[in-house]
Specification:
Layout: H1 2-19, H2 25-61, H3 71-89, H4 95-118, H5 120-127, E1 131-135, E2 138-139, H6 141-146, H7 151-159, E3 169-174, E4 180-184, E5 196-200, E6 203-204, H8 206-211, H9 216-224, E7 233-239, E8 242-247, E9 253-256
Antiparallel strand pairs: 1-2, 1-3, 3-4, 5-6, 5-7, 7-8, 8-9
Helix pairs in contact: 2-3, 2-4, 3-4, 4-5
Length: 258
């Protein structure tokens, strides 16, 4: 019905405009003003209809914040945003063609959520499961690899929670929504300064060598004394007179320098 009405109005406008070719400039201006006003009203009404549907649909989806969305919920949110834009921008598309996909997405979300709540295996398939990335031995490099994360990502997440050293963390878990939950190590000493990374995932951080007054030869000698090489190191940091070393597949250790 909307497509028919819109087409009829466009046909009428074309007919009237052809008649106005010989009319005065003032009449043509009035007609064009009417035409622009009509399309603006159509856009406003369509936008209000879609806005109401989106508010109702998002309300039914729950009150999760964006950072707490599960993977399939995040995909659905992106799809909703894209689907809502098309019928608003292009008035030649009947609004029903925009409402049906949105309604379909909301229904899909409802059933996926219902199945996730009913069956644990389905929930794990859709959302994944939490993974421990820091344990009593320190950083679990294998767990980070499975999550497609790197050490810099992990340290950034820890710093956002006021943990500047791995020693301060007893356990860290990456949740299914991507957030990192931390159990503090109450016995750990607080860093006296911000630790500087010297080696990250086997790669030397050249920019921090000058800041920490450390040379490449010093690092190699330090590691050699402990039967380690640069490639064996997941993370090596320094702060004040203390060095933190996290080897691959081994417990981390710290050394206080004289």
């Amino acid at each position: 019905m909307e497509a028919f009405a819109s087409g009829a109005v466009r046909l009428l406008c074309c007919f009237q405009y052809s008649k106005l070719q010989s009319a005065s400039q003032q009449k043509r201006d009035i007609f064009l003003h009417f035409l622009h006003t009509y399309y603006m009203l159509v856009i406003i009404i369509r936008s209000l209809i879609l806005f109401i549907l989106l508010v109702v649909g998002m309300r039914l989806m729950g009150k999760r914040q964006l950072g707490e969305l599960q993977p399939f919920e995040f995909v659905i949110t992106l799809a909703i945003a894209e689907l809502a834009c098309v019928p608003i921008q292009d008035v030649s598309i009947p609004i029903l063609y925009g409402l049906v996909p949105l309604f379909t997405v909301f229904v899909v979300h409802y059933f996926l959520t219902m199945l996730s709540n009913k069956w644990m295996w389905f929930r794990k398939t859709m959302n994944g499961k939490p993974m421990i990335v820091i344990n009593e031995n320190g950083i679990d490099a294998d767990a980070l690899k499975k999550l497609d994360m790197n050490v810099n990502d992990l340290m950034e997440a820890l710093r956002s929670q006021q943990f500047f050293s791995v020693e301060q963390v007893a356990y860290a878990i990456v949740e299914t929504d991507g957030n990192v939950s931390v159990l503090p190590n109450e016995q750990a000493e607080q860093p006296k300064s911000i630790p500087l990374s010297l080696i990250v995932e086997g790669k030397l951080i050249e920019a921090n060598l000058g800041i920490s007054n450390t040379g490449r030869e010093q690092i190699n000698a330090f590691l050699k004394d402990r039967n380690l090489t640069q490639k064996d190191i997941v993370l090596m940091t320094t702060e004040s007179n203390k060095v933190f070393v996290q080897p691959k597949n081994n417990k981390y250790f710290t050394v206080k320098l004289a």
